[in-house]
Amino acid sequence: MRYLAFFSIILFLAACSNNNTAEEQATEPGIQILVDESFAPIIDDQYQVFKSSYPNLKVELFYKSENAVIHSLQEGDVGIAILSRKLLPQEIKLFEKREISVRANKVATDAVAFITHKSSTDSSITVDEVTGIMRGAASAKNLIFDNANSSNVRYLKDLAEIKDLPKKGVYALQSNDDVIKYVHNNPGTIGVIGINWMKQPTKELEPIVKQLKVLSVKNSKGLPGSDKFYKPSQNNLALGLYPLSRDIFFIDCQGGRAGSSFEAFVAGERGQRIILKSGLMPNKIPSREILIRETRKP
């Protein structure tokens, strides 16, 4: 029995060693990460927990539009970014010429959401309506974007298969904050933002967000989610029923060096739990711990 107990302890210690979180193993003195500003709420949540847990690991986050993030990556200003897409083949070639490998690590699934004032009669929209507006079709609905260079604009341009925005029906402001405030102050308009801005608004935006609603979306005929209108809920994202979902990636262009401690944190158990609680869809469903206690009869 003594040997068995000793062997069990060795296995336990080995398991603990193997299960050390990657962020605890990382030793970088400081690292900079570019972040698509569409994901500011969820990434800031991750950062606050990370910083309080590992105060000695310095991480700096720089929030920019998608186009600005990719430009900075290509210029070599920063080697890691958080984006809603992988780099395109032609973008990767720029790094290959410098003999730098590019790695993409999916950490979550977000959704492009449509918001409007609660007083608006609109409660739903179809993908066909959205692509029609993006192509310049006459419509009573106006789409309000955060930034002309944002991932939200790029996503819907790709969906509509267009290169340029139409002159009418589509308008771009400066930020996601601006979109939320504009839609609140102009009932009848439809804002286009990442759903995490509605799930985790800043304190300033909380009272404004309460006056807004998220539209349900129906996909084009023959595609998943075309049977009815779906909200960008966690369940619908998991089942692939919400038509406008998108993945969140860590893009590593450091040239073969190990990934950052922050990436390891977000992709790990604690980071994935934060994503799950936020209402987004984590890449890996965190395990649930069930404590079973033996009840003794008196």
UniProtKB/TrEMBL annotation:
<dbReference type="Pfam" id="PF12849">
    <property type="entry name" value="PBP_like_2"/>
</dbReference>
<protein>
    <submittedName>
        <fullName>PstS family phosphate ABC transporter substrate-binding protein</fullName>
    </submittedName>
</protein>
<dbReference type="InterPro" id="IPR024370">
    <property type="entry name" value="PBP_domain"/>
</dbReference>
<dbReference type="InterPro" id="IPR050811">
    <property type="entry name" value="Phosphate_ABC_transporter"/>
</dbReference>
<keyword id="KW-0732">Signal</keyword>
<feature type="domain" description="PBP">
    <location>
        <begin position="21"/>
        <end position="267"/>
    </location>
</feature>
<feature type="signal peptide">
    <location>
        <begin position="1"/>
        <end position="22"/>
    </location>
</feature>
